[in-house]
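Posting this for the archive.
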Amino acid sequence: MHNQHLAKNIIELYRKYAREWVALRGEDLYEKVWLDRVLALVPAQAKILDIGCGSGKPIAAYLLAQGCRVTGVDSSETMLLMAQQNFPDQTWIQADMRQFHLEQKFDAILAWDSFFHLTQDNQRQMFAQFARHAQLGTVLMFSSGPAHGEAIGELFGEPLYHASLTQEEYRDLLTKSGFQVLNMVAEDPECTGHTVWLAQMVNPR
């Protein structure tokens, strides 16, 4: 039960430490190798949904520089205020990633370093969210843990919850949601040890 409480506290942590987190995160684009894999699969001026977008830097900034349009969703008002100030021409929406419903389909959906803060059950439910905002050909990229379990990290001295399903279950959830796995690397040394999934919608509902 303790871990469930920590999971519920994630939104509050990122609200409380939004500006400190942005400063800590910096603008080093260690995700570039994976973002380029997404960009290679989407049309020019792609519409991209960034779930857990934070301040928009550095990920949305890079996508915008490549000519994309970005819709960002985050639960932290402070993060979104920074995103709005950084990129006023894009769309920034305050919402819980588990519950928002946009009347729009996107060319790509990202859930980078955000989805893995959800509990295992909430992660399972997110695949319907991904599919709801996807059309034929939509590229989905998210980072997860490398193996089944829960892990407690730290953010500015406070416990930071992460969870992961098995790789087999992620594959199964993707397939059942209409996605085909294109690439998956566990603890990628080219991307600061991130475990990354890249999939594409082949069977929209």
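The chain has a mean pLDDT of 90. The first strand starts at residue 47 and ends at 51.
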